[in-house]
Specification:
This protein is mainly alpha-helical. The chain contains twelve helices and four strands; from the N terminus they run H-H-H-H-H-E-E-H-H-H-H-E-E-H-H-H. A hairpin with an 8-residue loop joins strand 3 and strand 4. Helix 4 packs parallel to helix 6 and helix 6 runs parallel beside helix 8. This is Prenyltransferase/squalene oxidase-like repeat protein.
Length: 284
Protein backbone atom coordinates (compact mmCIF):
# COMPACT_ATOMS: atom_id res chain seq x y z
CA UNK A 1 0.00 0.00 0.00
CA UNK A 2 1.16 3.55 -0.62
CA UNK A 3 -0.26 7.04 -0.22
CA UNK A 4 -0.92 9.66 -2.85
CA UNK A 5 1.72 12.18 -1.82
CA UNK A 6 0.84 14.59 -4.60
CA UNK A 7 -2.76 14.70 -3.38
CA UNK A 8 -1.57 15.14 0.21
CA UNK A 9 0.53 18.14 -0.83
CA UNK A 10 -2.43 19.63 -2.68
CA UNK A 11 -4.67 19.16 0.35
CA UNK A 12 -2.10 20.82 2.60
CA UNK A 13 -1.62 23.76 0.26
CA UNK A 14 -5.36 24.30 -0.13
CA UNK A 15 -6.50 23.67 3.46
CA UNK A 16 -3.77 23.71 6.11
CA UNK A 17 -2.47 26.72 8.01
CA UNK A 18 0.67 28.49 6.84
CA UNK A 19 2.56 26.93 9.75
CA UNK A 20 1.83 23.36 8.63
CA UNK A 21 2.54 24.23 5.00
CA UNK A 22 6.01 25.41 5.95
CA UNK A 23 6.55 22.32 8.11
CA UNK A 24 5.63 20.05 5.22
CA UNK A 25 8.15 21.85 3.02
CA UNK A 26 10.86 21.21 5.62
CA UNK A 27 9.85 17.55 5.93
CA UNK A 28 9.64 16.70 2.24
CA UNK A 29 11.77 19.30 0.47
CA UNK A 30 14.49 20.10 3.00
CA UNK A 31 13.27 23.70 3.01
CA UNK A 32 14.79 26.17 5.51
CA UNK A 33 13.24 26.20 8.97
CA UNK A 34 13.12 29.97 9.41
CA UNK A 35 9.67 30.35 7.80
CA UNK A 36 8.35 27.77 10.27
CA UNK A 37 9.80 29.69 13.21
CA UNK A 38 8.43 32.99 11.90
CA UNK A 39 4.94 31.48 11.54
CA UNK A 40 5.14 29.93 15.01
CA UNK A 41 6.26 33.20 16.59
CA UNK A 42 2.95 34.78 15.58
CA UNK A 43 1.19 32.54 18.13
CA UNK A 44 3.45 33.58 21.01
CA UNK A 45 2.30 36.08 23.62
CA UNK A 46 4.34 38.66 25.49
CA UNK A 47 4.37 36.40 28.57
CA UNK A 48 6.37 33.77 26.65
CA UNK A 49 3.47 31.33 26.34
CA UNK A 50 1.44 30.48 23.25
CA UNK A 51 -2.25 30.87 22.42
CA UNK A 52 -4.42 32.10 19.52
CA UNK A 53 -5.73 28.57 18.78
CA UNK A 54 -2.30 27.14 18.02
CA UNK A 55 -3.91 24.07 19.57
CA UNK A 56 -7.25 24.13 17.73
CA UNK A 57 -9.35 22.86 20.65
CA UNK A 58 -8.60 25.94 22.83
CA UNK A 59 -9.31 29.04 20.78
CA UNK A 60 -8.56 31.85 23.21
CA UNK A 61 -5.77 34.35 22.49
CA UNK A 62 -4.25 33.91 25.95
CA UNK A 63 -1.44 31.46 26.70
CA UNK A 64 -2.52 27.89 27.42
CA UNK A 65 -0.69 24.64 28.29
CA UNK A 66 -2.16 22.90 25.23
CA UNK A 67 -0.77 25.59 22.94
CA UNK A 68 2.60 25.34 24.68
CA UNK A 69 2.60 21.65 23.86
CA UNK A 70 1.84 22.38 20.20
CA UNK A 71 4.63 24.95 20.03
CA UNK A 72 7.18 22.50 21.38
CA UNK A 73 6.02 19.89 18.87
CA UNK A 74 6.79 22.33 16.06
CA UNK A 75 10.22 23.13 17.45
CA UNK A 76 11.02 19.42 17.79
CA UNK A 77 9.72 18.77 14.29
CA UNK A 78 12.20 21.19 12.70
CA UNK A 79 15.02 20.46 15.17
CA UNK A 80 15.15 24.04 16.45
CA UNK A 81 16.56 23.11 19.84
CA UNK A 82 18.43 26.38 20.29
CA UNK A 83 15.57 28.76 19.51
CA UNK A 84 14.92 31.39 22.24
CA UNK A 85 11.21 30.57 22.20
CA UNK A 86 12.01 27.36 24.09
CA UNK A 87 13.47 29.08 27.15
CA UNK A 88 10.76 31.74 27.04
CA UNK A 89 8.14 29.03 27.04
CA UNK A 90 9.80 27.11 29.86
CA UNK A 91 9.90 30.31 31.93
CA UNK A 92 6.18 30.87 31.28
CA UNK A 93 5.40 27.30 32.26
CA UNK A 94 7.07 27.86 35.62
CA UNK A 95 4.74 30.80 36.30
CA UNK A 96 1.58 28.68 35.97
CA UNK A 97 2.84 25.51 37.68
CA UNK A 98 1.73 24.33 41.08
CA UNK A 99 4.43 24.36 43.80
CA UNK A 100 5.15 20.67 43.19
CA UNK A 101 5.68 21.25 39.46
CA UNK A 102 2.35 19.91 38.22
CA UNK A 103 0.65 21.93 35.47
CA UNK A 104 -3.02 22.91 35.14
CA UNK A 105 -4.76 21.37 32.18
CA UNK A 106 -6.70 24.44 31.01
CA UNK A 107 -6.31 27.96 32.39
CA UNK A 108 -9.36 30.12 33.24
CA UNK A 109 -8.81 32.39 30.22
CA UNK A 110 -10.29 29.66 28.02
CA UNK A 111 -13.77 30.09 29.51
CA UNK A 112 -14.63 33.29 27.63
CA UNK A 113 -13.68 31.89 24.23
CA UNK A 114 -14.67 28.93 22.05
CA UNK A 115 -13.21 25.66 23.23
CA UNK A 116 -13.86 21.96 22.92
CA UNK A 117 -16.03 20.45 25.68
CA UNK A 118 -13.03 18.61 27.13
CA UNK A 119 -11.03 21.84 27.29
CA UNK A 120 -13.09 23.60 29.95
CA UNK A 121 -10.95 25.36 32.57
CA UNK A 122 -9.41 22.92 35.02
CA UNK A 123 -6.61 24.06 37.30
CA UNK A 124 -5.85 20.60 38.67
CA UNK A 125 -2.46 19.23 37.67
CA UNK A 126 -2.89 16.75 34.85
CA UNK A 127 -1.40 14.82 31.96
CA UNK A 128 -0.03 17.89 30.16
CA UNK A 129 2.69 17.89 32.83
CA UNK A 130 4.01 14.60 31.45
CA UNK A 131 3.74 15.83 27.87
CA UNK A 132 5.45 19.20 28.34
CA UNK A 133 8.25 17.67 30.41
CA UNK A 134 8.76 15.06 27.70
CA UNK A 135 9.18 17.66 24.99
CA UNK A 136 11.62 19.76 26.97
CA UNK A 137 13.73 16.68 27.65
CA UNK A 138 13.68 15.85 23.92
CA UNK A 139 14.87 19.39 23.16
CA UNK A 140 17.75 19.03 25.62
CA UNK A 141 16.50 21.81 27.89
CA UNK A 142 17.66 22.25 31.45
CA UNK A 143 15.31 24.39 33.49
CA UNK A 144 14.30 24.53 37.19
CA UNK A 145 10.66 23.84 36.31
CA UNK A 146 11.65 20.73 34.37
CA UNK A 147 13.40 19.33 37.44
CA UNK A 148 10.26 19.85 39.52
CA UNK A 149 8.00 18.49 36.81
CA UNK A 150 10.14 15.39 36.39
CA UNK A 151 9.85 14.65 40.10
CA UNK A 152 6.07 15.19 39.84
CA UNK A 153 5.87 12.77 36.92
CA UNK A 154 7.85 10.05 38.68
CA UNK A 155 5.74 10.42 41.83
CA UNK A 156 2.54 10.11 39.80
CA UNK A 157 3.79 7.10 37.84
CA UNK A 158 5.03 5.31 40.94
CA UNK A 159 1.58 5.66 42.52
CA UNK A 160 -0.57 5.22 39.42
CA UNK A 161 -3.42 2.72 39.41
CA UNK A 162 -5.63 1.89 36.44
CA UNK A 163 -4.19 4.52 34.05
CA UNK A 164 -6.46 5.36 31.14
CA UNK A 165 -6.92 7.55 28.07
CA UNK A 166 -4.57 10.43 27.48
CA UNK A 167 -2.81 9.87 30.79
CA UNK A 168 -1.37 6.71 29.22
CA UNK A 169 -0.30 8.53 26.06
CA UNK A 170 1.35 11.45 27.82
CA UNK A 171 3.03 9.33 30.48
CA UNK A 172 4.55 7.13 27.77
CA UNK A 173 5.83 10.27 26.05
CA UNK A 174 7.57 11.24 29.28
CA UNK A 175 9.06 7.78 29.75
CA UNK A 176 10.34 7.76 26.17
CA UNK A 177 12.12 11.07 26.72
CA UNK A 178 13.37 11.21 30.31
CA UNK A 179 17.12 10.41 30.51
CA UNK A 180 16.75 7.55 32.99
CA UNK A 181 16.37 4.49 30.74
CA UNK A 182 16.48 1.76 33.37
CA UNK A 183 13.82 3.35 35.54
CA UNK A 184 11.76 4.26 32.48
CA UNK A 185 11.82 0.70 31.11
CA UNK A 186 10.49 -0.65 34.38
CA UNK A 187 7.83 2.05 34.62
CA UNK A 188 6.57 1.44 31.09
CA UNK A 189 5.38 -2.00 32.18
CA UNK A 190 2.94 -0.34 34.57
CA UNK A 191 0.95 0.80 31.54
CA UNK A 192 0.68 -2.57 29.79
CA UNK A 193 -2.68 -3.45 31.42
CA UNK A 194 -4.21 -0.23 30.01
CA UNK A 195 -3.54 -1.31 26.41
CA UNK A 196 -6.12 -3.51 24.71
CA UNK A 197 -5.26 -6.58 22.65
CA UNK A 198 -5.33 -4.53 19.44
CA UNK A 199 -2.84 -2.02 20.87
CA UNK A 200 -5.35 0.77 21.48
CA UNK A 201 -6.36 2.68 24.59
CA UNK A 202 -10.03 3.72 24.91
CA UNK A 203 -10.96 7.34 25.62
CA UNK A 204 -13.82 7.56 28.08
CA UNK A 205 -16.27 10.35 27.41
CA UNK A 206 -15.26 10.73 23.78
CA UNK A 207 -17.23 10.01 20.64
CA UNK A 208 -18.38 6.45 19.99
CA UNK A 209 -15.42 4.05 20.00
CA UNK A 210 -12.90 6.86 20.40
CA UNK A 211 -9.50 5.43 21.16
CA UNK A 212 -5.78 6.17 20.93
CA UNK A 213 -3.92 4.06 18.37
CA UNK A 214 -0.53 2.32 18.68
CA UNK A 215 1.32 4.85 16.50
CA UNK A 216 -0.09 7.69 18.61
CA UNK A 217 1.01 5.95 21.80
CA UNK A 218 4.47 5.12 20.47
CA UNK A 219 5.22 7.11 17.29
CA UNK A 220 8.98 6.69 17.12
CA UNK A 221 10.86 3.50 16.17
CA UNK A 222 13.19 2.22 18.88
CA UNK A 223 11.46 4.28 21.59
CA UNK A 224 11.30 2.43 24.94
CA UNK A 225 7.49 2.33 24.74
CA UNK A 226 7.73 0.09 21.66
CA UNK A 227 8.18 -2.78 24.12
CA UNK A 228 4.40 -2.61 24.63
CA UNK A 229 3.68 -3.24 20.93
CA UNK A 230 4.80 -6.09 18.72
CA UNK A 231 6.23 -5.50 15.25
CA UNK A 232 3.12 -6.96 13.63
CA UNK A 233 0.94 -4.56 15.57
CA UNK A 234 2.98 -1.56 14.42
CA UNK A 235 2.98 -2.79 10.81
CA UNK A 236 -0.79 -3.23 10.92
CA UNK A 237 -1.20 0.28 12.29
CA UNK A 238 1.01 1.70 9.54
CA UNK A 239 -1.21 0.00 6.98
CA UNK A 240 -4.25 1.41 8.75
CA UNK A 241 -2.73 4.90 8.62
CA UNK A 242 -1.94 4.60 4.91
CA UNK A 243 -5.47 3.42 4.22
CA UNK A 244 -7.08 6.37 6.00
CA UNK A 245 -6.02 8.93 3.40
CA UNK A 246 -9.25 10.41 2.06
CA UNK A 247 -10.24 11.26 -1.49
CA UNK A 248 -9.29 14.92 -1.03
CA UNK A 249 -5.72 13.88 -0.21
CA UNK A 250 -5.85 14.60 3.51
CA UNK A 251 -6.49 12.67 6.69
CA UNK A 252 -9.24 13.24 9.25
CA UNK A 253 -9.18 13.03 13.04
CA UNK A 254 -11.17 10.64 15.19
CA UNK A 255 -12.56 12.83 17.93
CA UNK A 256 -15.30 15.42 18.13
CA UNK A 257 -15.46 17.98 15.30
CA UNK A 258 -16.90 20.82 17.34
CA UNK A 259 -16.47 23.80 14.98
CA UNK A 260 -15.60 24.45 11.31
CA UNK A 261 -12.34 26.22 12.20
CA UNK A 262 -11.24 23.47 14.57
CA UNK A 263 -12.03 20.84 11.96
CA UNK A 264 -10.05 22.51 9.17
CA UNK A 265 -7.05 23.18 11.40
CA UNK A 266 -6.92 19.70 12.92
CA UNK A 267 -7.16 18.08 9.49
CA UNK A 268 -4.07 20.00 8.41
CA UNK A 269 -2.28 18.91 11.57
CA UNK A 270 -3.18 15.22 11.31
CA UNK A 271 -2.31 15.16 7.61
CA UNK A 272 1.15 16.50 8.38
CA UNK A 273 1.46 14.01 11.26
CA UNK A 274 0.44 11.10 9.06
CA UNK A 275 3.03 11.95 6.41
CA UNK A 276 5.69 12.43 9.08
CA UNK A 277 4.92 9.10 10.75
CA UNK A 278 4.89 7.20 7.46
CA UNK A 279 8.16 8.85 6.41
CA UNK A 280 9.77 8.02 9.76
CA UNK A 281 8.85 4.36 9.19
CA UNK A 282 10.11 4.30 5.60
CA UNK A 283 6.66 4.32 3.98
CA UNK A 284 7.07 7.67 2.17
Amino acid sequence: MSIDLKAARKFTESTARLLERHQLAVLLDDAPIQPVLTALKAYQNSDGGFGHALEPDVRCPGSQPAAALSALDVLIDVAAGDDPMITELADWTATIAHPDGGLPTVLPSAAAHPHAPWMAPDTAAGFFTYALAARLWRLGVRHPWLDKATAWCWNQIDAIENPAGYTVKCALEFLDAVPDPVRAAAAIERFRPAIRADGTVPVEGGIENEHIKPLDLSPRPAAPSRELFGDKMIEADLERLEGEQLGDGGWDFHFLHFSPGQTVEWRGLVTLAAIRTLRTHGRV
